[in-house]
Design goal:
Mean pLDDT: 84
CATH topology of the largest domain: Cytochrome Bc1 Complex, Chain D, domain 2
Strand content: under 5%
CATH class of the largest domain: Mainly Alpha
Largest sheet: 2 strands, antiparallel
Number of helices: 14
Order of helices and strands: HHHHHHHEEHHHEEHHHH
Number of strands: 4
Distance between the termini: 55 Å
CATH architecture of the largest domain: Orthogonal Bundle
Structural class: mainly alpha
Oligomer: single chain
Number of domains: 3
CATH superfamily of the largest domain: Cytochrome c-like domain
């Protein structure tokens, strides 16, 4: 009984600790931006300063409430160890229907499922660098070539709204893929991530690791019971500024909002083991290569706007569209691994996303404009010439 109670308390404390980490990051980022604005008042209007002060006040209040709840949890766990929740947390998978309507966190649900393939798939998505990457003990299993995990991009274990959610993804394949100009399977799409975002090599489509990852993705649909038509899939669009990326402003946003986690040099923050990462590298040899979708400014800006700094959600973003646009451009202008044979991508050039940072293109706009904008002239050209509406 004591072991089960201890497990419950540790899990509860971990969940609250995770929330404290999110609030700490939001608090630090807001305070950093406010400090920068005060030091350089010419760059911020009075109204913008008032918004920053209001945001800081709300975050401090949220931090205070979280601290009170955390202390309450500690006292509760210390003096009332024989709580009914102990039985709830230790219930076998077959008794899950007895739980309250609020579902267990994905980690706990997977752990209690008793499904070894599901548990393996979850581990592969959340510990990719350790099980399928450079840290894998078996060299033959080193498929990825950087420090990223699948959940570095597919946030909240692949379940976050507009966080490149994996929910219902399996129901959208087979799917036409413009990059290959053919119908593709989910396994092929995963291999696309492995060779680009993970800077590695493809797996066999029927090997145990691939099947386990697909099993987890399929399980998400059933566990979360989400109507596929209501899933907030992919990334939420932003309003593109009608100008080129301002790299100087992008560097400023990076310093005030991103460096606290990913470090000023963009190389991420390592865990105490010195091998794995708390926050992944954004550029350099351990990040995604230049053929990854995240290397497109528009894609990166959409991801950043509604998911960063860490802990924000799509309905309460911190950054403006212009800030996300500039910092995405700044990030993607840094050095990163180079993928070969990119000229083979998008055989039908008209279908190539306009922010793809490498040619050839079906237009005569310079590569710098494809990388950094402005994109409105490119959009107008494709609409007038090919009758195609470009959005990314």
């Amino acid at each position: 009984m004591l072991k089960r109670v201890t497990t419950f308390r540790i899990r509860s404390l971990c969940n609250w600790g995770y929330r404290c980490k999110e609030i700490h990051i939001l608090l630090f980022a807001t305070f950093s931006e406010l400090t920068f604005a005060i030091k350089m008042p010419s760059k911020k209007s009075k109204q913008e300063l008032e918004v920053l002060i209001s945001r800081l006040s709300k975050t401090i209040a949220k931090a205070g409430l979280t601290l009170v709840l955390l202390v309450s949890l500690l006292l509760f766990g210390t003096f009332f160890v024989d709580v009914p929740q102990v039985r709830m947390m230790s219930a076998p998978a077959s008794d899950l229907q007895e739980l309250p309507e609020e579902k267990l966190p994905i980690f706990d649900a997977v752990a209690q499922s008793g499904d070894e393939q599901l548990q393996f798939g979850y581990a592969l998505l959340t510990q990719t660098d350790e099980l399928l990457g450079p840290l894998a003990s078996n060299p033959s299993k080193r498929y990825t070539g950087n420090a990223l995990q699948c959940t570095s991009c597919h946030l909240n274990d692949g379940a976050k709204d507009y966080g490149i959610s994996l929910v219902s993804v399996d129901q959208r394949f087979p799917q036409y893929r413009g990059r290959e100009d053919k119908m593709g399977t989910l396994a092929e799409r995963i291999n696309g991530c492995f060779t680009r975002s993970m800077n590695g090599r493809p797996m066999e489509v029927d090997q145990p690791e691939m099947l386990a990852m697909i099993a987890y993705i399929e399980w998400l649909d059933d566990y979360l019971e989400v109507d596929p038509t209501t899933v907030k899939k992919g990334l939420k669009p932003i309003e593109l500024p009608n100008r080129a990326v301002n790299l100087e402003q992008g560097a400023e946003v990076y310093t005030t909002q991103c460096a606290v986690c990913h470090q000023q040099d963009g190389q991420g923050l390592k865990n105490p083991d010195g091998l794995t990462y708390t926050y992944p590298p954004l550029w350099g040899p351990n990040s995604y290569n230049n053929g990854a979708g995240m290397n497109r400014v528009i894609t990166a800006a959409q991801f950043i706007k509604y998911n960063m700094p860490f802990g924000v959600s799509y309905d309460a973003p911190i950054l403006t569209d212009e800030q996300a646009y500039d910092v995405a451009g700044y990030m993607n202008q840094q050095e990163r691994p180079q993928r070969s044979n990119l000229e083979l991508d998008f055989p039908d050039r008209v279908k190539k996303p306009m922010s793809t940072p490498y040619g050839p293109y079906a237009d005569n706009f310079p590569i710098e404009q494809h990388q950094l904008g402005p994109y409105q002239p490119i959009m107008a050209y494709y609409e007038a010439t090919f009758g195609v509406t470009k959005t990314k």
